[in-house]
Specification:
It is a single chain. By secondary structure, the chain is α/β, with parallel strands linked by helices. The protein has one domain. The protein has 8 helices and 12 strands. It has helices at about 10-20, 45-55, 110-115, 135-140, 150-155, 170-180, 235-245, 260-265; strands spanning about 10, 30-35, 40, 60, 70, 120, 130, 160-165, 185-190, 195-200, 220-225, 225-235. The protein has a 7-stranded mixed β-sheet, sandwiched between helices. The structure holds zinc ion.
Length: about 270
């Protein structure tokens, strides 16, 4: 729009805002970032990565790669997938390799972080994380335990940072679902070793914003530029959400009537 000026956010603004959260710098942080939420960031995604690493010693971001996924002709039942429906899309799938860019939906900051020197990228063909000084967390991931890094970060007293994004991208809530015993799924990915089965695949996160009010008491908030920034302690957040799901087995499911994964969770008889 003519005459409408987005605020420009500088490296100093980011450092200042992140410090206002008053997290200890030696606590690991898993962050989810929307670059455009700030307005205009001088220097772009690299500036945000630099500021995060300027304030926190240890940083992790999800660098998921859904373009590796393929749909087989058959598989386990009740898996929220239409077997055989991938005839066209399977041909477009890409082999996982450690330098495969993160999906666009992970955001430009996650991709800038992945390509930064000194960052370790995990090996999971769909649900990889990138980490800086977080080798223990990154290496805790396996095909059977894709959310293992979250558990390590939580045990280290880590925090989740939501920069201009909401809880629908808060991967760590999937870890709480898993701990609560919620149904997990199986997916398949293309790798140089062939198609591999990826169990422990989490459900849908479209309903995760319902957790916001439960978590209000442990949420720290600041504003940086036009972005709302939230920080939550992982262990407390996970425990709280796990307890809610244990009481209400349908908590945090989305309300799309055709959501295959949420419907599969609803169908589980307990
Ligand atoms: Zn859903």
């Amino acid at each position: 729009m003519m005459g409408e000026q987005k605020p420009e956010v500088t490296f100093r603004d980011l450092i200042h805002g992140l410090r206002q959260l008053q997290l200890e710098r030696n606590r690991p942080v898993i962050s989810h970032v929307s670059l455009s939420s700030f307005g205009q960031v001088r220097g772009g995604a690299e500036t945000v990565v630099g500021a995060l690493l300027g304030v926190f010693d240890t940083l992790v971001m999800p660098t998921f790669t859904y373009k590796t996924m393929v749909i087989p002709e058959s598989g386990p039942e009740d898996n929220a997938i239409t077997y055989g429906s991938g005839k066209d899309t399977n041909r477009m799938a890409e082999f996982y390799r450690p330098n495969l860019p993160a999906d666009r939906m992970m955001g430009m900051v996650a991709e800038a972080f992945r390509t930064r020197s000194g960052t370790l990228r995990g090996k999971h063909p769909i649900l990889s994380f990138a980490g800086y000084r977080a080798d223990g967390a990154i290496n805790a991931q396996s095909l059977d335990d894709p959310l293992g890094p979250i558990g390590v970060l939580a045990s280290q007293g880590g925090w989740v940072l939501l920069l201009g994004v909401d809880h629908t991208v808060n991967t760590s809530l999937h870890y709480a679902e898993k701990l609560a015993g919620r149904k997990q799924f199986v997916r398949w990915a293309l790798t140089p070793d062939g198609v591999v089965e990826c169990p422990g695949f989490p459900g849908c996160s479209d309903g995760f914003n319902a957790a916001e009010e439960w978590l209000e008491g442990i949420t720290r908030r600041v504003t940086i530029g036009a972005a709302q920034v939230r920080a939550l302690p992982l262990q407390d957040m996970i425990n709280l959400v796990k307890d809610k799901i244990s009481v209400d087995t349908q908590a945090l499911l989305c309300d799309r009537p055709d959501c295959e994964r949420c419907n599969a969770v609803r169908a589980v008889r307990v």
